Amino acid sequence: MALVVILGALIATGLWLWMARANKGGRSWARIIATVFFAILTAVELAGLISFLKGPRYFTVFNTLTLSFLAVYWLTGLSAVVLLWQRSSSDYYTAAGSWSKAIRVAAQKPHDQPAVRGVTHPDSN
Description:
With 125 residues, this protein is mostly helical.
């Protein structure tokens, strides 16, 4: 059982790190996936909390620490999802999408032509 918990925690950590990197890169799909991961996390934690409350309640130090850790973990995920859907975040994704599109267009143009009409490289004069 402990191996399953550790493996699950490692997979969840890897997914969150992947989402953090993708969101930092301005990938608009990443905030949708991060929100879905958070919804799954919420469902799993609620199921665990309900199971804990239905069973015999042994409020040991371990159980208290576990519940505290899960609450902090969930609140961190909630904070991240709220920040991902702020207006300023939407502006960031829009700008990042425009920038990546400009880079793709620039990569397709020959080097002797400007990538954007009217914009030339400072060294071309």
